[in-house]
């Protein structure tokens, strides 16, 4: 059974082809700079030399055609025919309140995704372009939408509502939605397997920390709170995003610096976080290197980052009245041992005993990095959102 997973950006198509019998990746790749005469297509098939092509790809339709041509190419391909692709799983960022789970795509679903464009104006439009292109080129396949927000639709009302006039919720659906849902769901499933316990018996805190970052409180398999809100700007300090701030800062800075709404929004999303505090980089590897080399701004950025992550974890321990496991995932979570160490060192009241040797080791495999006598298990689990999308899509195939 072959399933193609598609993740479309405004000028990109990321893809992975799976055989679901063994959950094995047959091919993967990326089309970048769509709309340019110098578009780049990177393709890698299993046991095949990687291919990089520069060509004119003016829209997502052309990009999808290129992808499918490569997948069936006699030299670079892994398929005899595109008819072998039985289903396509599409990552869709925002499902609003319309979707609490993955769905088979039809015209009603497309209309609902389009309705939620105002909640994710940078993401939902290219997601729709990808759906349109894939449905055009693969009309025989089952197409499934998998939403970043769906996993968090189990949050209770008191957790997702803002303390604003309720008319804003009733008219515009202003509330907390949360993101990274496929990642949080995947690593919590993996954590239960690693711990040898049913997910329905566990209280877990999932820390997805990459350039974007969010935490989720997952109680007995259900997300009951998450740090991102109406948009991915809320919550933790991130690579370029500020996370939680006093909302009065926005009009204050706008008045002082004579900024437009667009300019202050750009400042909070693209010029804050690690890069804003350090003045060096949004990359945690560079921040850590400079911090230990004596750069005070880099060290401040690292201290702020781990302090705020620790506060979020503490809040979710209180929310769930305890915790069985804390998961670190995504680029920073999986690779930055110092972030894990600094975050956990003042959570000793939970009975956490970190195995320093395991924490320092780099591994591409899921592992428990706490000691055997640790009351709370600490886990590092590489996320695999594409595989989660493939699994969700596979559920709909009879």
TrEMBL record:
<keyword id="KW-0479">Metal-binding</keyword>
<keyword id="KW-0547">Nucleotide-binding</keyword>
<feature type="binding site">
    <location>
        <position position="385"/>
    </location>
    <ligand>
        <name>Mg(2+)</name>
    </ligand>
</feature>
<feature type="binding site">
    <location>
        <begin position="331"/>
        <end position="335"/>
    </location>
    <ligand>
        <name>ATP</name>
    </ligand>
</feature>
<comment type="subunit">
    <text>Homodimer.</text>
</comment>
<feature type="binding site">
    <location>
        <position position="91"/>
    </location>
    <ligand>
        <name>substrate</name>
    </ligand>
</feature>
<feature type="binding site">
    <location>
        <begin position="208"/>
        <end position="212"/>
    </location>
    <ligand>
        <name>ATP</name>
    </ligand>
</feature>
<dbReference type="GO" id="GO:0000287">
    <property type="term" value="F:magnesium ion binding"/>
</dbReference>
<keyword id="KW-0067">ATP-binding</keyword>
<keyword id="KW-0418">Kinase</keyword>
<feature type="binding site">
    <location>
        <begin position="283"/>
        <end position="285"/>
    </location>
    <ligand>
        <name>ATP</name>
    </ligand>
</feature>
<feature type="site" description="Transition state stabilizer">
    <location>
        <position position="180"/>
    </location>
</feature>
<dbReference type="InterPro" id="IPR000890">
    <property type="entry name" value="Aliphatic_acid_kin_short-chain"/>
</dbReference>
<keyword id="KW-0460">Magnesium</keyword>
<comment type="pathway">
    <text>Metabolic intermediate biosynthesis; acetyl-CoA biosynthesis; acetyl-CoA from acetate: step 1/2.</text>
</comment>
<dbReference type="GO" id="GO:0005524">
    <property type="term" value="F:ATP binding"/>
</dbReference>
<dbReference type="Pfam" id="PF00871">
    <property type="entry name" value="Acetate_kinase"/>
</dbReference>
<dbReference type="GO" id="GO:0006083">
    <property type="term" value="P:acetate metabolic process"/>
</dbReference>
<comment type="function">
    <text>Catalyzes the formation of acetyl phosphate from acetate and ATP. Can also catalyze the reverse reaction.</text>
</comment>
<feature type="binding site">
    <location>
        <position position="7"/>
    </location>
    <ligand>
        <name>Mg(2+)</name>
    </ligand>
</feature>
<feature type="site" description="Transition state stabilizer">
    <location>
        <position position="241"/>
    </location>
</feature>
<dbReference type="InterPro" id="IPR023865">
    <property type="entry name" value="Aliphatic_acid_kinase_CS"/>
</dbReference>
<dbReference type="InterPro" id="IPR043129">
    <property type="entry name" value="ATPase_NBD"/>
</dbReference>
<feature type="active site" description="Proton donor/acceptor">
    <location>
        <position position="148"/>
    </location>
</feature>
<feature type="binding site">
    <location>
        <position position="14"/>
    </location>
    <ligand>
        <name>ATP</name>
    </ligand>
</feature>
<protein>
    <recommendedName>
        <fullName>Acetate kinase</fullName>
        <ecNumber>2.7.2.1</ecNumber>
    </recommendedName>
</protein>
<comment type="similarity">
    <text>Belongs to the acetokinase family.</text>
</comment>
<dbReference type="InterPro" id="IPR004372">
    <property type="entry name" value="Ac/propionate_kinase"/>
</dbReference>
<dbReference type="GO" id="GO:0008776">
    <property type="term" value="F:acetate kinase activity"/>
</dbReference>
<keyword id="KW-0963">Cytoplasm</keyword>
<keyword id="KW-0808">Transferase</keyword>
<dbReference type="GO" id="GO:0005737">
    <property type="term" value="C:cytoplasm"/>
</dbReference>
<dbReference type="GO" id="GO:0006085">
    <property type="term" value="P:acetyl-CoA biosynthetic process"/>
</dbReference>
